[in-house]
Write a structure and sequence with these properties.
Helices cover 29% and strands 29% of the residues. It is of the alpha+beta class.
Length: 105
């Protein structure tokens, strides 16, 4: 799979996994959706749209799961794709951390 990431601050993660337990791609998408509705709300994003790197400029999520770009070669071998704005997503997590620390005082 080839990517052209033409923006200076957006990166793509192309994660290929050999899984011990079998899983269908639709099941993986469900687990990711559950995570972003729970403990990863406002941290992890999700899209099924056809996107390019510039779509993620100034995206506040630490990472966005690109459901439409992933594939499975078998129930044990999967490739998943995440996009992130290196600067903006990180800065938003630092702001979250500062707010958390301030709430503990």
């Amino acid at each position: 799979m080839a990517f052209c990431v033409t923006t200076a601050n957006v990166s793509v993660v192309d994660l290929t996994c050999c899984q011990e337990k079998p899983a269908k791609y639709d099941d993986i998408k469900k687990v990711v959706k559950q995570a972003l509705e729970g403990s990863l709300k406002n941290i992890l994003g999700y899209t099924e749209h056809q996107v390019v790197s510039s779509n993620f400029n100034s995206n506040t999520h630490s990472s966005t799961f690109n459901a439409g770009a992933g594939i499975t070669l078998s129930d044990h071998f999967v490739k998943i794709i995440f996009w992130h704005d290196n600067e903006f997503g990180y800065t938003n997590r630092v702001v979250d951390l500062m707010a958390h620390i301030a709430s503990k005082e």
